[in-house]
Amino acid sequence: MTWLTVGTDAVLGVFALMFLLLWFQHKLRAFLAGAGVVVAYAVSEVVKLVVQEERPCRTAPSIAECPAPGDWSFPSNHSTIAGASAMAIFLLHRTYGWIAVVCAIAAAASRVVVGVHYVHDVMAGLALGALVSWGIALLLKKKMPVKREEADAPTVVMQRLR
Questions:
Q1: Higher pLDDT, 116 or 1
Q2: 137 with 129: CB under 8 angstroms?
């Protein structure tokens, strides 16, 4: 295995670490954001049942070990998880979010470079993951009450001038 194949899985560990760090600040919201990633993965698996595309490693040499037959290529599960994680992290914390976006793109690109996915597989996976995660976040935002200190615009009380 090369650093690229190990790096793809390591990026998923980076996302888990970011969620853990965000847990201390956001508790329930971080947990629910992680749950959105699980939903995105499940949606990806359903799409794979409908679109049964063979992997490029079946017809061309690849750096990584080719998954077993029946483990379809479209969309990329790694990219779906990466896209969903990046969106969830971005919605919780902008700075960590930008780091997560770069990591997600790198993880998706590495799946193409090692030869286990086509470019459209990883692009679809990133988009699918990000959209599902964003949609879950919107639904949860409507259901969860906003704490006063988390409101979008802080309230400023000024003393009356005499």
A1: 116
A2: no
Return the amino acid letter for 104: A
**Closest to 36 measured CA to CA, from 99, 96, 80, 100:** 80
Is the four-CA dihedral 121, 117, 75, 7 of positive or negative sign?
negative
- All structural domains of the chain with their residue ranges: 3-144
Task: Give residue-wise pLDDT tens across range 43-64.
Answer: 999 998 898 888 887 887 777 7
Q: Please answer whether residues 29 and 139 qualify as being in contact, where contact means their C-beta atoms are separated by less than 8 angstroms.
A: no
Distance of alpha carbon 56 from the chain centroid = 23
b or e along 21-52 (b: 16 or more beta carbons within 10 Å of the residue's beta carbon)?
Answer: ebbeebeebbebbbebbeebbebbeebbeeee
- Residue 81: half-sphere exposure toward Cβ, Cα within 13 Å: 18
Identity at 119, one-letter amino acid code: V
Write the pLDDT tens digit of every residue in 94-134: 888 898 898 889 888 888 888 888 999 999 999 999 999 88
Alpha-helical runs (H) found in the chain? 3-26, 28-50, 77-92, 94-113, 119-143
Measured distance CA(89)–CA(133) in Å, rounded:
10
